[in-house]
Specification:
Layout (H helix, E strand, L loop, with lengths): L13 H37 L2 H42 L1
Helix pairs in contact: 1-2
């Protein structure tokens, strides 16, 4: 859903546009996080029923790797946010 198309944010307000885009990106990341973790937890529960220790360990490792990947994505979003803020500040200073 494009929030800007609904007229809730003025496209001339660069900070609002940036905030909306970051909110959308964070929402997508959270949705990915929830879906991924849900699927992994479901798989982990199935493996516990089968009582296979090696499978549980493998799934725990997968969860840890996914969490590390998610943390890296969050760091990237923070870096992009800082970069966008700096670019907007430079643009505002030039105007």
């Amino acid at each position: 859903m494009n929030i800007m198309a609904k007229g809730k944010v003025k496209t001339s307000d660069k900070r609002s546009v940036r905030d909306v885009k970051l909110d959308e990106l964070a929402g997508l990341l959270n949705e990915f996080d929830v879906n991924t973790m849900g699927a992994l937890v479901k798989s982990l529960k199935k493996s516990q029923k089968k009582n296979k220790q090696s499978k549980k360990d493998e799934l725990r490792d997968t969860i840890e790797r996914q969490q590390e990947h998610i943390d890296e994505q969050k760091d990237t979003i923070d870096q992009l946010n800082n970069h966008i803020s700096k670019l907007i500040d430079r643009l505002d200073n030039k105007l």
